[in-house]
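Ticket 4471: requesting a sanity check on a complex prediction with adenosine-5'-diphosphate. Repro inputs:
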Amino acid sequence: MSVVAILLALGWLATAWVAWRLKNSAVRAAESHARQLEEQRRHREAEFRAQAARTEALFDRMVEGILVVGQDGRLRLANRAAAGMFQFEAGAAGRTVLEATRHHEVAAIVARLAGEPEVLNHELRIDGVTETRWLQVNALALRTPEGEGEGAILVFHDLTRLRRLEGVRQEFVANVSHELRTPLSLIKSATETLIDGGRQDPQVTARFLEIIEKHANRLTLLLDDLLLLARLDSGRIDLDLRPVPLAAAAQEAIDDAAILARGRGVTLVQSVPDGLTAHADAHRLRQALANLIDNAIKYGREGGTVEVRGRELGAQQVEVSVRDDGPGIAGEALERVFERFYRADKARARVQGGTGLGLAIVKNVVQAHGGDVRVESTPGRGTEFFIRLPAARE
Ligand code: ADP
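Returned structure tokens:
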């Protein structure tokens, strides 16, 4: 082999080696790049999954129900609140809106959205087996930036509590109007009788003036009770909380009721043990006890006995109760006596002239103290109302 040939061979070898090295490092660079890309892809995927999980958790924690519907009318996403509102199980994705919600109006809203650029607002009433619920729906069609339909999103707000409160308010206003109208119309007709000549006769005048006074007093009582309830409702009542000896409070309330008790031949008994002390507003507690004692006399047995009792409930609470031996309160009425304007025996309550707010006031006054009230009654045997209050600390 000539020197030239050897040099050529060496040159070729060197070139091949350089090429091989270059190729090798290019492959390694490509491989490392690919690895980097793969790592980035995995990282992005993990981030995407974490983001999706966060969004899903957020969706599930929302009180509003959310349904996302695809262009094919099938559910893409339904959060927990929506599942609760329409009572379908998780995993509703893929079902049609009608299958999942079983509500034609919801499916109709989705159908209407197709040509609708604005948010659609609609109120749904869902009559269940045990209760009726109201939902406010805001629905919006989803579109791509090019304006093509991409499905819809529906947001449901539960209005049930609001509707119920509205119902309670309406009923309350109707009751108040009714309670005001009765004495007012009696006052009006008595006044008209006097104007139309009745006043010429002194006896007629005396009788009708008495009617006017009686019903004006009734109106005053009603307004006083309504104002007190309004103040209790809004928390605008300042309680002067001090240690109040229960036996003394019971005795004062009993003394206040002496005339009423005598009128019905009722014996009042004070048997609260000495040493029981509540952390309470003395004036409001006396008012609550007076309401219970008045009721026990009015609705209890004529010639019967009304007893005020008391006991300690652990170190934290004391209880005072008013018991009568009257006809008692039956079943459904027992659950409702603390409601405003509820009367177990309407005819009797009207004769007694109560406002129908006495027990509601007792309940609210006691609750304002952080206590509670309850009632036990056996028809034919009698009734006992219990007031539980925080005990005064030594
Ligand atoms: P009212 O002004 O009608 O007395 P309350 O709120 O004080 O209103 O009482 C509500 C209703 O509860 C009464 O109308 C009466 O029917 C019933 N009630 C209250 N206390 C007694 C009782 N001790 N025994 C029987 N019924 C009672």
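Notes from triage: The longest strand covers residues 132-143. Leaving this open until the requester confirms.
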